[in-house]
Amino acid sequence: MSVPQEAVAVGAADGVENEVDVVDEFLGTTLRVVDELVGAEPAQERCMREALLDALLRTSFDEMTEKAGELETSNSPEDALVSWLRDCVAWTTEYRGVTVLMAAAIDDTESALHASCVTLRAAGARLLARAQAAGTARSDIDGADLFALVAMLAWLGDQPSLAPRSDRLFDVVASAILPSARSGH
């Protein structure tokens, strides 16, 4: 399934920030059409919305997972984790509202987003474990904690009144995870 060309043109003309609005509008329109055709109940609509989101975001999920794999072999454990964490937070923030769905999907095996979220969490967990093995990351956190921190940091970036603080707070969180991390990694 692809986004209509008119929606892509609007998104391209308005910039990256509006891509999420275009996707959300596309999803809303698609769900209304499906609902009219099949008379979907609210629970079915939620499942269809998640399935559409998974289809639309699958490439991005896969790219973040692939990036983690590349960073595992090409960077120091500390730099790899900070780089992936920063990119993952930026990607998650780009798709406003997806944080809530991802947080719910991680524990909901029936969710269409579940497998993608579990794979993404595992990718981050591998980078964290590598940094822990090198002695640069705290040993009292795990992949679930890291996933929660991504959601928290993305949520901050999603709030207009807090967004200006998000980079500084990212550095605070990164230095808590990796005590030797420096601002600007």
Describe the structure.
There is one protein chain. This protein has helices at 5-14, 19-38, 42-74, 77-94, 98-105, 114-133, 143-158, 166-177. The protein is globular, with a radius of gyration of 18 Å. It is built from eight helices and no strands. It starts with a helix and ends in an 8-residue tail after the last helix. The chain has two domains: 1-40; 58-177, Tetracycline Repressor, domain 2 (Orthogonal Bundle), CATH 1.10.357.10. The relative contact order is 0.11. The chain is mostly helical. Helix 1 (5-14) runs antiparallel to helix 2 (19-38) and helix 7 (143-158) runs antiparallel to helix 8 (166-177).
Short key terms for the protein model shown above:
0% strand, mainly alpha, 185 residues, Tetracycline Repressor, domain 2, disordered N terminus
Mean residue pLDDT: 77
Gap from first CA to last CA: 37 Å
In the CATH hierarchy, what is the class of the largest domain? Answer: Mainly Alpha
Structural class: mainly alpha
Strand content: under 5%
Give the fraction of residues assigned to helices.
over 70%
In short:
The chain is mostly helical and 185 residues long. The protein has helices spanning 5-14, 19-38, 42-74, 77-94, 98-105, 114-133, 143-158, 166-177.
Question: Which SSEs are present, and which pair or pack?
Answer:
Blueprint: H1 5-14, H2 19-38, H3 42-74, H4 77-94, H5 98-105, H6 114-133, H7 143-158, H8 166-177
Helix pairs in contact: 1-2, 2-3, 3-4, 3-6, 4-6, 4-7, 5-7, 6-7, 7-8
